Every structure is written in C-alpha cells, then in structure tokens.
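User: I'm preparing a small set of examples for a lab meeting where we compare how different chains pack in three dimensions. I only have the primary sequence for this one, and I'd like the structure in token form so I can line it up with the others. Please keep the answer compact; I'll paste it straight into my notes.
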Amino acid sequence: MSREQGQAHLDTYLAQVNRHLHGLSEAEARETLAELRSHVLDRTDGHLSPAAVEAAITALGSPRDVARMNVTERVASVVETDRSALSVLRATGRLAGLSLFGFFAFLVSLTGYAVAAGFLLAAVVKPFAPERAGLWRIVDPNGGYDYSIGVVSTARPAQELLGWWMIPVGLAVGAGLAYLTWRFGLYSIRRMARGVRRQAPG
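Assistant: Understood. Below is the structure token output for the 202-residue chain.
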C-alpha cells in the first residue's frame, strides 16, 4: 500500500509539473516528465514509499520551478544548434510566459524586428514607388508630430523626410537593427538559461 501511495504522490507531482510546461511540444513534455520520473526513481532506489518520494520531489523543487527550468533549458539548447533569427524569435516567444524578463525580451524582439522590417521594406520599395515609401512626419491635430516608417497604399498628407536617402539609410538601419535584435534575443535566452541553472538543486 505504501508503494501505491508513493506512486500516486509522484503521479500527482508530475501532473502539476505538466500543467506548467507551456512552450514545449507534447513530445517534449512527455520526455521531460519521463526524465523527472526516472530521476525520482533513481533517488529513491525504486523504493516508492511516500516519505522517499516526498524527499526526492522536495529536492527537485516546486512543480512551477521545475517546469520553468526544463522549458528554459530545452529552448536554450535548440537555439544553440539553430541560431537563425526566426529560431531566436520563436524561442523568446516560448519563454515569454515564464517570467517578466522573458515577456520583456519577447516584446523587445517583436518591436525590433517590426521596425527593422519597416526600414528594409521602405528601402526596397522606394525606387518603384517613391511617393509611397519612406520615413513620414505627420502633423497631429494638437500641433505635434507623429512619425512612421514603411510603405503606404496611397500618397499620404505628410512630409517624407529622407527622399532618396531612404534607400541607403533604410538598408543600413534595417539590417543593423535586425542584427542587434537578434543578438539581444540570444543574450536574453542565455541569461534565462544561466538563471535557472544557478537555481537548480545541487
């Protein structure tokens, strides 16, 4: 009976961990849970008494912390093998729900790539539609200014600031900003991975 109680306690713990494995695929979640189960069995030498199971899972940490650690480690390992901009952006998205810093990193990455895309698109379209592509300054009703970058469907009642300089400036700024955003994403993922490693039980 005590073994059955210990097994039930372990199953309950793993179910709680599973609820926090946001960002992992179903296959990755199953693999993570299998590794955790194996770890507990090793620590208890297969003797699943309630006391032994409790000691093992206490050493692992709370279900939320264990899930966050495993998700972060898995996402970081994927990025180290595929460092493309899309892979890094996808990774920051998978980590966004795990911490405030993760959400901040994802938001900065989205914004950075969006602005970079605006500059690059304006630069590419400028030779073909010079009146529709550029960096725009728009007078708002209160007498201030709003700025936007990119391509519009029709000529807009605003001042285009760069003219033909939009091409070299757009290419340089867009490429530079995309690169910096990519580097920031990599840094953020590695920082989060280092953080969970420091918190891991010895």
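A couple of notes for your slides: The chain has a mean pLDDT of 87. The radius of gyration is 25 Å.

User: Perfect, thanks.
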